[in-house]
Structure formats: C-alpha cells, structure tokens
Amino acid sequence: MIFTPTSPIGIFDSGVGGLSVLRAIRAQMPEEPILYFGDQGHIPYGPRPMEQIRDFSEAITKFLLARGAKIIVVACNTASAAALKYLRERFPAVQFVGMEPAVKPAAETTQTGKVGVLATPATFQGALYASVVERFANGVELFQDTCPGLVQEIERGNLQGGETRRILENALRPMLAKNIDTVVLGCTHYPFVIPLIREVAGEKVRVIDPAPAVARQVKRLLEAGGLRNASSGRGEVRFYTSGDPNALKSLLPVLLGESGMVEGVEWVDEVSIKAPTPA
Ligand code: DGL
Fold first, then answer.
1. How many separate domains does the chain show?
2. When you count CB atoms within 10 A of the terminal residue's CB, does the N or C end of the chain come out lower?
3. Which of the residues 21, 34, 76, 154 is marked catalytic?
4. Residues 263 and 142 both lie in one domain
5. Do 242 and 115 share a domain, yes or no?
6. In this predicted structure, what is the pLDDT of residue 258?
7. Which domain holds residue 229?
8. How far is the CA of 14 from the centre of ligand 1 (A)?
9. What CATH number is associated with residue 130?
10. Is this structure's pTM higher than 0.90?
11. Which pLDDT score is estimated for 277?
C-alpha cells in the first residue's frame, strides 16, 4: 500500500454519526479529501454481536483502503470497541484512529465527582470502556445509559423534539437527580443533539464531544507521517452508504451544512462489499 499526501482520509461509522467527526476534521483540515462510509444498511451496530461488527469493520476498511485511504478513522465508538484492536493487528501498515468515551477529561474536571456517560450497549460491554474506566475514572462515579432508539431518531434527522426529547429526558433525568455536572457523549451520533441535551440538562452541565480531539489526533498522525495535503483548496468529500443514498443526500445539509456526492453500495454477504453504483 502506498500512502501519499494527496490521498484521502477514510472515515466510517454505522451511519451518520461519524459525520460529527468528519465535521471536526473538515474544520481543522479543510483541504484534505475524505471518503466517508456510513453502513446504514446495518444500523444500529450497538445491539449487535461484537464478532459481526468486527466483520463489517474489516470489510469497510478494505473498501476504503482499496480507494486509496491514507489513514482510517473509526468514527464510531461501537466499532472501535468491537474492532479497533483487531484492525490494527490485521492491517499493521495502516494508521487507525478510533473513538473511546471521554471519561478522562470528564473525571479531571467534574466538580461533583459524578459524570453521565451515553453510549451503546456494545460500547459499554467492550474491553475498551472497561479499560478507560479503570485507568481514568479515578474514584469519579459514572452513570451510564444506552439511550435506546436515539441513534435511529438521529438517522431520521429528528434532532429536536418528540421522541428524541423523550429518550434524552429518560436518560438524563435520573443522572441529574444524582447531581452529575458532566455528560460524556460516547456515541458519535449524539453531538447532533447537543442543543437538546443542553435544554434537558441545563446550561451548567458540561457536555463533552470528543470529535475535535480526535480530529487533532488525525492531524498529528498525518503530520508525523509526512501525509498532510499541502494544497490550499477545499478537499473533495465522497460519501458511500449501504442504505438509501437519496436519504443520506438529503440529510447531509441538515447535519453538516454542506452537500456531497453520495454513492450506494451493496453488501454481498457480511464480509464483502460490492462496488458502488452512483445515486
Ligand atoms: N455512532 C455509533 C457509535 O459511535 C453507534 C451507532 C449504532 O449503534 O450503530 O457508537
């Protein structure tokens, strides 16, 4: 595999969640071309077995590498929990950046010593979360919730009221009653409902979106490897989805504030992906 500075950054998620990471990468490195893969045909990943998520992640990584990706951003906490370690072993020549719930900055800054963590069931079950808690919680009390249905609401573009609010109230109210002062977003979909989280939790509660820190890490790795794109224009972003390309196309302006070319892809089976067909 040959990686060059003009090669794209590969990003994937089970759906639109990774767009919160893409947005941060684009803000810090607008000139970088990007390939984004949303596995919307398989969403949600959260309740799935780890082995299956690992198979999906491997196939998507191969798909992105075959299209020249110079680094892979696993912009999904669930896929990171299930597959990051495996992907690093399976593709030793490739640099990966993954997600982990930001327990460390939360534990360092909480005043009440109580922190809420919102993430999927697979993320909470994984060894990655256990290790983050063990290394960084430092006596801070963590309250966890899987927010059932929230990922699907965000996939439909429901960022404001109704069911989305109900799910967040169910998750946050018991934590607020325990006096949390910080909420960690341990799922990349959730930054899209930060305004609603603030409405429910109040302005005093700190909400931690790890996307900017992840984008900084991507930048550091590219710089260290001599792989930063030196051009001054805006890099092209290409989107691939295993769901409905038209639905993704219409959601992009809502979530990202910009549009882009979306291509539909099909899974042959659970371990291989067919070449895309333009939308
Ligand atoms: N966006 C994914 C994450 O960060 C989860 C969504 C899903 O359950 O598919 O965990």
1. 2
2. N
3. 76
4. no
5. no
6. 87
7. 9-99+212-278
8. 6
9. 3.40.50.1860
10. yes
11. 61
The pLDDT of residue 76 is 98
In whole angstroms, what is the distance from residue 192 CA to residue 279 CA? 25
76 a catalytic residue: yes
pLDDT one-digit tens code per residue, 190-241: 999 999 999 999 999 999 999 999 999 999 999 999 999 988 899 999 999 9
In the block, tokens 């910009």 appear at 258
78 lines ligand 1 (CB under 6 A): yes
Parts of the chain with a pLDDT under 50: none
Q: Which pLDDT does position 278 carry in this prediction?
A: 56
